[in-house]
Amino acid sequence: MSRIGIIGGSGLTKLSRLDITHREVMHTPYGEPSAPLTHGVYEGLEVVFLPRHGSGHTIPPHKVNYRANLWALKAIGVARVIGMAAVGGITARMAPGRICIPDQLVDYTWGRAHTYVEGDLAEVTHVDFTEPYCEALRSQLIAAGRRAGVDLEASGTYGATQGPRLETAQEIRRMERDGCDLVGMTGMPETALARELGLCYACCAVVVNWAAGKSEGPITMAEIEANLASGMAQARGLLASLGPDA
Ligand code: HPA
Q1: Does residue 246 sit within a domain?
Q2: 147-164 tens-digit pLDDT
Q3: 121 pLDDT exceeds 70?
Q4: Of 2, 217, 230, 232, which has the fewest Cβ atoms less than 10 A away?
Q5: CA distance linking residue 218 with residue 152, whole number of Å
Q6: 166 lines ligand 1 (CB under 6 A)
Q7: Ligand 1 near 211 CB (within 6 A)
Q8: Residue 18: which of 56, 49, 52, 51 has the closest Cα?
Q9: Ligand 1: does its nearest atom lie under 6 Å from the Cβ of 87?
Q10: Pocket residue to mutate for ligand 1, from 183, 210, 228, most atoms within 8 A of Cβ
C-alpha cells in the first residue's frame, strides 16, 4: 500500500525505531509546516512523519499551521494520514491510559485558519463532513490496536477546544451534554482540512488526564506527563502492528 502520513502530537515528536531515509523541507502556499517531513520505514511500513508542535515541541495548538502541514503531506503524494493526539477523558470509559479511535467530533475552536476555501470562487463549495474520519483507516487502527493488545475504545466523540488553557469544569459538563467523550486542542481544523484535500484521515487519541472536574482537584502537568509517556508507548505499539501491508 501507499505510505502513511503520521502527524505526531504531544509526547510523540519523534518516532523511535523509525529508519529514517531522508528529511524534506517543504514550503507551501500557506507557509511553512511545523517541521521538515521525515521519510522512513517504521516496522516495515513506509511512513512520513511530521511533529505537529514542531521538532522541539514549541508550537502551541492555536499556532499550528494546520493548512501547511496537511498541504505538505498531500503535495508529496500521501493519501492517508494518522493524527496522533493527547486528550482529556470526559466520559467514564475514557480513563487515562486508554487509547480511543474517535468516530465523531464537535468543534469549539475559533479564529484558526480553518479552510482552503478562500477568495472569490466561481462557485461556493461545501465538503461533506457527516462522518469526519476515514472509516477504512479507523478500522485499520482498531485492528492494529487489538493485535498489539492495546487498551482501546473503538469509537468516541472528540471535542476540539481552542486552548492553550485547559477547560473549566462547567465547560466540560457542557461538552458532555453535547455528547463529547474526549477533549483535545488539535483535532480541528486538522480533520476538516484533511477532508477538504480528499485525504483519508483518522485520529489515534491517547487519554492523558481526566478532563476538568472529572477528578478531585486541579489537573497537573505531572499527571499528564506520566500518562503521556505510557500512553504514547501503547500508541507506538499500535502503529508498529499496522504492518508492512497497511
Ligand atoms: N483538555 C484539552 N486538551 C487536552 C487535555 C484536556 O484536558 N488533555 C490533553 N489535551
Answers
A1: no
A2: 999 999 999 999 999 999
A3: no
A4: 217
A5: 26
A6: yes
A7: yes
A8: 49
A9: yes
A10: 183
